[in-house]
Please model this.
Amino acid sequence: MAETMLEVTPEMTPAEMREYYLEQTRRSLAQWEANNFSIHDNPPFPLDSDAAAEVRLTPELAQRINLREQIEAFAEEAKVSTAGVRENQNVLCPWDHRYRINEYIFALIAEALSKLVVELQPERFADGHQVDLIKVRKHLSEQVGVIEAIFGRPLEEVVELMKATPVRIVGGEVRSNTPRYVDLMSRIYAANGLPVVLTEDPKCGDTSNIFMWSFLTFVLGLSGGDYFTSSHGAPQKQSDKILAPDGAQYLPPLYARIVDHLLQILEQIEAGGYTLKLAARKDPKLIHRLSYSRMATLYA
Model:
C-alpha cells in the first residue's frame, strides 16, 4: 500500500483525501493517548454484544472525560438549535470524548429523552380526544394492514399502545457510525420500557431520509423519534435530529427540558454514580419490522 500523503495537494483523488483525513485522525488520537490515557481500546458500551448490559458512569469517569463540560456545551448549543446539534465526531473512535459528538453524549440524551417523553405523554392526550377507528380504517385503507404488521397487533391495540406508553422511532442515513448510534439509543429506550420502531436490519444498518422519518413519526402516531444526519454538513459531522410527535424537529423550549434532565443525571453521576441500561438486541420492545416496502406503502 502506498504511503499516506500528509499534505493536501490539488492532484489528490477523493480516495487519497479520505485516507489523508483518516490518517490525521489516527495520528491525533495516538498523540493524545501517548500523553493521557487510552481511548481507542476502551469503548464504554458493549455494542458488539447482543446481550443486555449495564454501564456504570462514575464520578471519576465523569471527571476523566470532562462530562460536565460536554453537557454544558450541549446546553449552550441547544438554546438556538432548530435542527439538531451538529458537531464533529471521531469517525474511527465514536466514543472519543474530545469530540462534541460521541457515544457518551448520545447515551445520556437517550436517557434524558426517556424521562422527558414520559412527562410529555399526558400532555399529548390532555384534550381527551377519542380516535374514531372506523374513520381511520376508511381513510388509511391498505395502510392499516401495514401498521398492524409493523406492530404485530390489531389497529385497536396499536391505538391503545400509543396512549399507554411513548413509542419511539430511531434511524439515520449514511454518516459514519450511524448504525452504532441508532443501536445505542434504541437499546437505552427499550431498557427504559419504551417500544422502538426500527428498520429490519438487527444491526441497524438500513438507511432512510429525514423526510420519511418525519412522515412516519406523524402517520404512526408516535411520541417522537431520532434521526442521525448532519444534513449538508461536512462528512465527519453528525447530529441527532430529535423529532416531536408531529414529525417536526424539537425547538429550543423542548431542548431546554432535555437539558434539565441531563443536568439532573449529571448531578447523580457526580454525587456517586449512575447506571445506564441497554436492552438485549432481541428485546421485544425493539420492533425491527420497518421494511422499505412497508415505508413505501405508508407513504404512497
DSSP finds eleven helices and nine strands in the chain. The chain has two domains: 1-36, 43-299. Residues 14-35 form the longest helix (22 residues).
